[in-house]
Amino acid sequence: MSADKKNNEVEDKEMDQAQTAANTEATDTESGEEKSVFNSGILASLFDKATKVGAKAKRDQSAINPEEIEKTVRDNMSKPKGSNAPHQLRLAFLGGGSFGTAMSNLAARNGCDSTLWVRNKRTVKSLQKNRVNKKYLPGYTLDERLKFEHDLKTAVQDKDIIFVAVPSSAFRETLKNIRPYLSGQSIVSLTKGMEKDTFSLMSDIIEQELPGVNFGVMSGPNLAVEIMQNMPSASVIASDSELLRHAVQSALHSAFFRIFASDDIKGVELGGALKNIYAISMGMAASYNVGENTKAMLLTRALAEMSRFGVASGANPLTFLGLSGVGDLYATCSSELSRNYRIGNMLGKGLSLEAAIKKLGQTAEGVNTIQQVHEKAMKLGIYMPITHALHAVIFDDQAALGVALNLMESGFRSDVEFVMPHEYSNEALNAQMTAGMPDQ
């Protein structure tokens, strides 16, 4: 017997003895003998046990084959996840942008009857022929089970859940168009943003246009390209309906994509909408080559603004500590894959808003959200200095550096909104922040 093997057997035997001793101690305590939990003998045996377990785990780790684990995960992903459900879920995804495409592809890969609706008939033919969304996700082949449709009636009739992933500007019109074809389907919004001029969130529009329909909203740190690359990601489904939450989790959960549940519709939706504002500010800051301290300050003060606005709108502030809040905020503010980050970066480099939007070639919801939230915050007296500053730079033509310096000099405040009261009221700080701005 080799010396290493002998030592290993001795270590395993000692570990078993330590376990037996610990179990004996526990049994004696349960039988009524009074023994202190700080008894040095118990602590010594537990520390010894932990050391032996760590040594054994280190030896066993060499037997792990990362390639075999990856192969097993990928094999599991190829198996339909919906096969254990009472019936195969029938899903429609409206909107052929990057996120709608990624989610419909994920559902199809999970074994759901998944149909992606795109308005343009020629685009549908291209998708059917090439199975690649050339405009939004070039280079990624879509699952062979994913269906494509340009006729809205055919796409939504007899489905279980309709996921709406169109821009916020087209959301209301889309709901009006599908209303004649609804017969009990649930609606889930994948759109992050606010309707221009009404400050309506997508859940508000659903309730207005489709009263009585079961609905939910989905949001999280979900960069579509990374989802297509099978990078581990997660999202949140928020709904008052437990059945709908479970159905969405069943349809979209996979080895690399997790779905968490919430009943705070307002908080989840606001997190997804508001973070776009701060992605623009972070992209703009990056164009000035700011340091990590500045980025960290901007990120955390953005989170404070989001939660402050959320509470004023009836949301739970704790929701903003989750995936749809700080999770989505971090992903959107730190990645060049984010459309809003790219818009901010182009603006910081001197491009006009019109030129930046044209160069992007896609919808950047944050531009409209800045206008909506700025006006709402001013009206309600909610302290939103970063939002006001961005509005001043983008829409009032104020110099970015001057606005930034004003931000650094404005008022004293406590760090965490709901832990310590502020020295100054929101109204006083708002007045100081907006002093000298043009009349709205």
Automatic annotation (TrEMBL):
Active site: 275
EC number(s) from the headed UniProt entry: 1.1.1.94
Superkingdom of this protein's organism: Bacteria
Residues that, per the record, bind NADPH: 98-99, 119, 136, 192, 224, 339, 365
Record pathway: Membrane lipid metabolism; glycerophospholipid metabolism
Pfam families noted in UniProt: NAD_Gly3P_dh_C, NAD_Gly3P_dh_N
One Gene Ontology molecular-function label: NAD binding
Ranges of residues in domain Glycerol-3-phosphate dehydrogenase NAD-dependent C-terminal: 264-398
Main function: Catalyzes the reduction of the glycolytic intermediate dihydroxyacetone phosphate (DHAP) to sn-glycerol 3-phosphate (G3P), the key precursor for phospholipid synthesis.
Protein name per the record: Glycerol-3-phosphate dehydrogenase [NAD(P)+]
